[in-house]
Structures are given as C-alpha cells and as structure tokens.
Amino acid sequence: MKxxxxxGLKEExxxxxxxxxxxxxxxxxxxxxxxxxxxxxxxxxxANSPWSDTYHAIWKYQFSIGFDQYVxxxxxxxxxxxxxxxxxxxxxxxxxKREIIGGELxxxxxxxxxxxxxxxxxxxxxxxxxAFNREGSGADGWGIPMATDIAFSLGVLYLLGDRVPVSLKVxxxxxxxxxxxxxxxxxxxxxSSNIDFINLGIGVLFLAVLWIANGIGVRNTIFYALxxxxxLWLAFLMSGVHATIAAVLAAxxxxxxxxxxxxxxxxxxxxxxxxxxxxxxxxxxxITKEQLNVLQDIRSYSKKAITPLQRLxxxxxxxxxxxxxxxxxxxxxxxxxxNDFFMQLVSPVALGIMVGLLLGKVVGVVGVSELMMRFSxxxxxxxMNKLHLWGTGFLAAIGFTMSLFIAGLAFxxxxxxxxxxxxxxMASLVASLAGYLLIKxxxxxxxxxxxxxxxxxx
Length: 458
Fold this sequence. Notes:
- By secondary structure, the chain is mainly α.
- Helices cover 75% and strands 3% of the residues.
- Residues 13-27 have low confidence and may be disordered.
C-alpha cells in the first residue's frame, strides 16, 4: 500500500511541477509571442557576434529531395520559407475556414467593421510605401507593410491580461484573420512568377481530388496530408505559384463537419459512461478488457464528434507556434548592423516600411473604422472605446513574421533585404510598445469610469 501511495504522490508531483505548467505555457496566447520575439532577438545577437559568418552560412547549406531527374534543390533558407512556412499557412487556412464557417467572420454584421479596418490597414501602407519607392527594384516591396503578425499582435494584447475587454480581443482577431486572407491573395497574384501551367494544372487536379474526397465523406487526415503535400504542394512549388498558396487551398478542402450529431454523441456518452461504471474492476493498476473496450469506444466517438478541421488546427498549433515560426524568425531576422546602419535605416525601402506600418496601418485601421461608424449603422463592439481602437491600429502595425516573409518574396538583392528587415523590426518594436501603452491607458480610463459611476450611484 505504501508503494502505491508513493507512486501516486510521484505522479501528482510530475503533473503539478512539469506537465501542467508546460501545458499552461503552450496554451497561453502570449507564450508564442514571447518565443517568437526571443528567436528574433537571438538571431540579431548572433548576426552581430563573432559567429556572424557561421550564422549566415548555415542558411545557405544546399540539399535536395526527389529521384532521377525529378529533383528539387534549394538552400536551407528556401526550404524553411517554402516548406516549413507552408505548414504555417496551412494552419492559417484552417483558421480562416473555421472563422468563415462559424467564427468571427461568419456573421457579416459583426465582421464588417474589422474587415473594413483590415482593408484600410492594407491599402494605406501600400500607398505610403509606393510614395517612398515609386520606381526601381525597391518598388516591388509594396506588399511588405500590408501584413499583420497575428501571433505577435495577440501576444502583446494578452500580456495586458484582464485590462483588455473580450470584445477587443475578438475585434483584433477578426481584423488579423481578414488581413491574413488579404496577404494570401497578394502573394498569390503579385508574388508568384514564371507560371508553369502544366504543373499548375496538375496541382488543380490534386485540389479537385481533395474537394471530391471531402464531398463523399473521407475524413482520414493522412489521406489529405499525402494528397496535399505530395501532390498539391509539390505541383504548386514547381509551377511558379508560391507553395504557401497550395497550403491554404489544401486547408480549405479539409472537412468541417462532425461524423456524429451533438445530441447523439451526448446520449451515447452517457450510455458508455454508465457501462464503465457497471464494469467489474480488477483492483490492480491495469484495467479489465471490458473497461478497455468501453474507453476505446469513448475515444472513437469523441474523435467522430470533432471536425477534422478543428482537430488538425488544435494539434498543429503548438508545432507552428513553438517550432515553425520561431525557426522562421531565427533564420530571417538576423540583421547584421554595419557602419551603414543609419544610412540603411533612412533608405527609401526602410522608411517606406516604417512609415507604411506605423502611419499607414494606424490611419487605415482607425480612419476606415471612423468613416464606417459615421456613415453607417456599425459601431465599436461593446466594451471598446476610441483609445482601444487606436491601440488596435498600432498592434495591427506589427508586421514581423508576415512582413519578413513577403520581403523574402519581393527582394533578391542582399542590400534591399537588409533594409527591409531593419524597417520591419524597428516598426514592429515601436508598434508593440505604442499599442501596449495605449490599450493599458484605455483600460485605466475604463476602470476609473466604472469606479466613478459606482460612487455616483451609491
């Protein structure tokens, strides 16, 4: 008995000291932002250390996949941006589909304001950037300041804790998701080149297979992974259309229906739990065959009650948030600060990005929202005030991951890439601080208002 008690105590300590804190950290919305920022900071440190040459050389390491004459050869940096980031965009696609079907973008009446703000927050930054870069190779970077980093912006927001109304979190989430959709379209139409229509046609055929499988009720995620990666992703990669678009299209083909209805699931669970209670225990650590069969039925029906789309999104979120995005940031944010640092910082590319994000995003988000509220019936969500809106505008100006990604597509000259990274990092840092401070101040004002109202009514 003592041995069993000691074992139970050890298991409880492992759960309390290791498993539960790890789970809370992974599920904490601000944790991924912290890891992302730490990865970028480490990259900048290494890029300006005695190991700078080694850091930059790692990403140029070449390796290939394929067989015979069908071989794709790229350096590590491209495999991260075209391969790992395709997984990131796949999860973005899952999130977009879920939000359109039953989330913040499903009701056009509540989604119209954040969607309008997102559109304004994409158009104004692009126009401002082009004002700084009207011609030349720098003009190709107009899509860089259009993007919002949803993980980083929500991470900053969640650092404020209870000071933030739920309506603001919902508003920013809807805005960032609409922004992601816009970024995907920009990449598809403007940052894909030299289209090979044969491979593109093959990719479309694989996409049709995915949609047909969805229509006839195929729910095996391994099937969708094989057809989506081996077929659709590779075909798009070789077609000239950026492979991340294939990831989003594949995500939209994932089934979003449960296999059993909620009412039937609830009734059947009650029946199975009752069977488990009535099963004779064997009074040892292992369970009986009957108990095992009941638990397997519970697991099977629980799986059928979750849509493949939501199951994939939930399972892949930690992989993307704590592995893929930090690796991307670590490989892309390493800016070596040279003697020309200030010259690069005031270059047309860097200035276009910084002013585009810090002015264009804020003016676009706040300005379009104000116009929509003045000339239509839409209003700010309950709990939000004008200061919250300004803070949201700055949080939307955190481009970071998405901006770095588009910069890699827009530029091939090392100097332009360097200038764009400086602009993105500086703007994202300023936007993070400004958004945090404004929303914190707005929270203090709301608390003071509630306190004053309480005193008056008492």
